[in-house]
Design a protein that fits this description.
- The complex is a heterodimer of chains A (about 110) and B (about 110).
- Chain A is built from no helices and eleven strands.
- Chain A is mainly beta and about 110 residues long.
- In chain A, strands 2, 4, 5, 9, 10 and 11 form a six-stranded mixed beta sheet that branches.
- Chain B is mainly β.
- Chain B is built from no helices and eleven strands.
- Chain B is globular and about 40 Å long.
- Classes of the chains: A mainly beta (about 110), B mainly beta (about 110).
- The interface between A and B is medium-sized, with 23 and 23 residues.
């Protein structure tokens, strides 16, 4: 069984500031980890994923995340926030080599202050 | 590729009516997933198929919900009878063989009055 905890349902940062969205997971098997972004009234778009290998993964739009097994974390970061980053962000975990369905966190609403 | 296609995009119905949601996965993908998104429960997996066969339907809330995948290019999620608590956004996603990335459709926003 898997579970995901996203700390902070809302995160507000100033434009140009560091973005840090936190995700902790629980999994009984080696996890595959994902970050998805959802813009208003749209579907989910993959930002980045960790499967195996390098623990620091880079995604689209300047985002990256680091898999830390010892901390069971997969936090999402971006050095400099842009107004267009305002959206809902979901962390998700999958077991079974990624062939199973995803278990999502509750989501974090990212607000960018001008 | 056109991506995952869902129809209708919006559905308003009255309690007790039958609702059918449709999904066309990305061509060549062999896994299909149905999710539901609500404010209270977030994103939940309802059911998924592999090569048109249901693999895990443990997320289907009750017998009022049923899903089928008659062929590799089409799936339906049916609610009969519908209830106001079924109001949600329903997403379909697909993935290819050996691929862990799921590609999501735009969703169907269902409102049951």
């Amino acid at each position: 069984a898997q579970s995901v905890t996203q700390l902070g349902s809302h995160v507000s940062v100033s434009e140009g500031a560091l973005v840090l969205l936190r995700c902790n997971y629980s999994s009984s098997v080696p996890p595959y980890l994902f970050w998805y972004v959802q813009y208003p009234n749209q579907g989910l778009q993959l930002l980045l994923k960790y499967t195996t290998g390098a623990t620091l993964v880079k995604g689209i739009n300047g985002f990256e995340a680091e898999f830390k097994k010892s901390e069971t974390s997969f936090h999402l970061t971006k050095p400099s926030a842009h107004m267009s980053d305002a959206a809902e962000y979901f962390c998700a975990v999958s077991g079974g080599g990624g062939a199973d369905g995803l278990t999502f966190g509750k989501g974090t609403h990212l607000i960018i202050q001008p | 590729d056109a991506g995952v296609i869902q129809s209708p995009r919006h559905e308003v119905t009255e309690m007790g009516q039958e609702v059918t949601l449709r999904c066309k996965p990305i061509s060549g993908h062999n896994s299909l997933f149905w999710y539901r998104q609500t404010m209270m429960r977030g994103l939940e997996l309802l059911i998924y198929f592999n090569n048109n066969v249901p693999i895990d339907d443990s997320g289907m809330p009750e017998d009022r919900f049923s899903a089928k995948m008659p062929n590799a290019s089409f799936s339906t999620l049916k609610i009969q009878p519908s209830e106001p608590r079924d109001s949600a956004v329903y997403f379909c996603a697909s993935s290819g063989t050996g691929q862990e990335t799921q590609y999501f459709g735009p969703g169907t926003r269902l409102l049951v009055l």
